[in-house]
């Protein structure tokens, strides 16, 4: 008593007492949090693995799309086109020489046109097929990204919970509210206190 103190200066340190049942509940909660974290991390790893597979598949589809014109169907059509072009060229010479009827010449030209059209349509169909497959894979990729983000948020929340549970509020420091003098001490070191007990009185030093 009679000691001069400044505002904010520590006066008394109170050590809290945690009940046994509260401790048990705290430990059970921490155990559940750890289980949740492990579960979320495992599920996240599964989604990351799935995302990597989808990413690889997208790259493969893009490479396959570049090779459409080298596919068996297109190469086969191109061979037919080249053979028909030779026929048309030969028929044109025969037609000009009067050795081939016009309808036969025109028939070969129409067959050539249809083969070229078939080739272009086949390329278009295959390209659209790959584009649709890639679009579907991209949608799956976005879904994976969204789920992974969700798991990251859940893991962070559980980490915050665990940090809070591990930070037990075992001590409380009472500081002086004003500059003044300790007028009365109602507590001794090591004594027990109850909630709302009056521990110490500080009065302004000008009284």
What does this structure look like?
- The structure is a single chain.
- The protein has 207 residues and is mostly helical.
- It has 3 helices and 5 strands; from the N terminus they run E-E-H-H-H-E-E-E.
- The strands form 2 sheets. Strands 1-4-5 form a 3-stranded antiparallel β-sheet, with no helix packed on it. It has a two-stranded antiparallel sheet with strand order 2-3.
- Helix 1 (20-66) packs antiparallel against helix 3 (102-166).
- It is rod-shaped, with a radius of gyration of 42 Å.
- The model has no long low-confidence stretch (mean pLDDT 87).
Keywords:
207 residues; mainly alpha; two-stranded antiparallel ribbon; 5 strands; 12% strand; rod-shaped
Could you outline the blueprint of secondary structure elements for this entry?
Elements: E1 4-5, E2 10-15, H1 20-66, H2 72-96, H3 102-166, E3 171-175, E4 180-185, E5 200-204
Antiparallel strand pairs: 1-4, 2-3, 4-5
Helix pairs in contact: 1-3, 2-3
């Amino acid at each position: 008593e009679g000691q001069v103190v400044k505002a904010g200066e520590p006066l008394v340190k109170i050590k809290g007492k945690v009940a046994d049942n509260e401790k048990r509940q705290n430990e059970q909660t921490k155990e559940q949090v750890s289980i949740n974290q492990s579960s979320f991390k495992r599920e996240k790893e599964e989604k990351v693995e799935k995302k990597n597979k989808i990413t690889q598949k997208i790259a493969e589809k893009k490479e396959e799309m570049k090779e459409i014109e080298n596919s068996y169907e297109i190469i086969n059509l191109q061979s037919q086109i080249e053979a028909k072009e030779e026929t048309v060229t030969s028929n044109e010479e025969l037609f000009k020489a009067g050795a081939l009827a016009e309808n036969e010449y025109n028939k070969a030209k129409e067959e050539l046109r249809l083969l070229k059209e078939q080739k272009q349509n086949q390329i278009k169909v295959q390209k659209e097929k790959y584009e649709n497959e890639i679009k579907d894979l991209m949608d799956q990729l976005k879904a994976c990204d969204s789920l992974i983000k969700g798991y990251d948020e859940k893991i962070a929340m559980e980490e915050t919970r665990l940090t809070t549970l591990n930070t037990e509020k075992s001590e409380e420091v009472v500081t002086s509210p004003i500059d003044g003098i300790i007028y009365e001490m109602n507590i001794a070191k090591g004594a027990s206190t109850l909630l709302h007990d009056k521990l110490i009185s500080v009065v302004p030093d000008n009284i």
